[in-house]
């Protein structure tokens, strides 16, 4: 049984949903495998400065806070958000690919750290220095990690991940898939509270066992 979390590092609702997935992982660490895939929400020609999203995010972030309990920090809302820094999902997605080569079991935790660095601390995920700070708590080799962050092969792997998610028909984030070994089931689309996620997974497992 494998739980696949499909997210994007720049997605505000994903920032709210990742803590739910982390709780779910703690509850099921003994009976389920966990994976996290990047969806490629803002890449290529879709990239744009944060400032172009200021009005939308200033309005929407309160909904995310009220529904999920996460907080957006002043450093993000007042400094990074109005800036000309580019919104680009690729580099943090490559960073997750790199991280998974070291500590796949902690990948969801690392994804959350990236989201917190962006949405609370207001740190750009386009800068190598951000990752140097984030990987320290995991004890990873900094220079090696940064070197691999610029590896074309890992960039290609990451873009293949975007393509896989697209092939599954997932165009909105967050989402989650349960792989029963027989079939893939969509078990979350958009923010989903823990109790509802658990109920959906239980229903899928019961249905799968009947097949």
TrEMBL record:
Residues 6-200 form the DSBA-like thioredoxin domain. InterPro entries: DSBA-like_thioredoxin_dom, Thioredoxin-like_sf. It comes from the Bacteria. Pfam families: DSBA. This is DsbA family protein.
